[in-house]
Amino acid sequence: MAASEAPAVPAHEEHYTSTGLDNVKMAMWAFLGSECLFFGSLISTYLLYRNRVLDGPTPAEIYDIPYTSVSSFVLLMSSLTMVLALASIQRRDMRGCRIWLLATAMLGMIFIGGQIYEFTAFVEEGLKISTSTFGSSFFVMTGFHGAHVTVGIFMLLALFGMSLFGRLDFDDGPRKVELIGLYWHFVDIVWIVIFTVVYLVPTN
Amino acid sequence: MVHSQETAHEADDHHPSPRTYIKIAIILAIVTAIEVVFSYIPGAEPGLIVTGLIVMAFIKFVLVALYFMHLRFDNRLFRRLFVTGVVLALIVFAVYLATLFGRGGAAPLITGS
């Protein structure tokens, strides 16, 4: 067989299905679809209970909108740095990819630091998970979101570490960065909904 | 099979440029700023505020999904998987609302501390 007739062999191992699509990416999208249901349930529960406060502070008394707006801005910008990391590795710029991955992880840590501060301030003002159904639904929903962000930070730092030790190459690397990026953007999308529905929409 | 693999690779090649990503991020930041200002408008009709906020959140949601998550450029099957999840979440929300109004629980119980 002449060289020009040789079948194209992928430079890296991608697990294609009968659809011709990478099945890991397919699994990631299916996972994100199921996560929509998970967070949809938590947000719905919060909306159901946010006005049911028999004890402790009410949402209007306790939310600090300017502070949360800054946190939201930080998380939105982390989505930008994440796609810039992907664009860098697709351009075979490993140094740029490392910088943007680290920037994304740092912005994620700032967001989580802000959330820890907010939770601490709420507890000091008398809102605990057991204070009211509003407190329970608020802490469970935002706590699960924070846990997702934390998992994302660990995955970003793992990618950064892999790039330092030569485990992130230009063949399979873009795919790995894209998959982690999908998760990260999803976490951002969930916060877009939480920020509007939980913090900005006025309570009764 | 080979054709569909090529299609998948072609989709990857059509990701936007960093300049487009930055433009989208600027739009997202501006919409967020408008959202915050909008929520502070004194004496505005609550229904109008809620509608405006939801529309702006939807715009941000769609922009991130289409451009940052590349749903606009990737295979349609990924879009369908994600949209299915979103639609199911909205159904859950509708069921919650039906539960809320069905038992007459819409009345606020707020008493405060």
Which H/E pattern describes the elements of chain A?
HHHHHH
Looking at how many chains there are and whether they match, the oligomeric state comes to heterodimer
The number of E-state strands of chain A comes to 0
**Residue runs with pLDDT of under 50 for 5 or more positions of chain A:** 1-9
Walkthrough of the structure:
The complex is a heterodimer of chains A (204) and B (113). By secondary structure, chain A is an all-alpha fold. Chain A has helices at 23-49, 59-62, 65-90, 94-124, 133-164, 173-200. In chain A, helix 3 (65-90) packs antiparallel against helix 4. Chain A is elongated. Mean pLDDT of chain A is 89; it is low at 1-9. Chain B has 113 residues and is an all-alpha fold. In chain B, helix 2 (18-39) packs antiparallel against helix 3. Chain B is flat, with a radius of gyration of 20 Å. In chain B, 22% of the residues are buried. The interface between A and B is large, with 70 and 62 residues.
What descriptors fit this protein?
heterodimer, A: 204 residues, mainly alpha, Four Helix Bundle (Hemerythrin (Met), subunit A), 0% strand, B: 113 residues, disordered N terminus
Explain the layout of strands and helices:
The complex is a heterodimer of chains A (204) and B (113).
Chain A: H1 23-49, H2 59-62, H3 65-90, H4 94-124, H5 133-164, H6 173-200
Chain B: H1 2-13, H2 18-39, H3 46-68, H4 76-102
Helix pairs in contact in B: 2-3
Question: What's this, in brief?
Answer:
The complex is a heterodimer of chains A (204) and B (113). Chain A is mainly alpha-helical and 204 residues long. Chain A has helices spanning 23-49, 59-62, 65-90, 94-124, 133-164, 173-200.
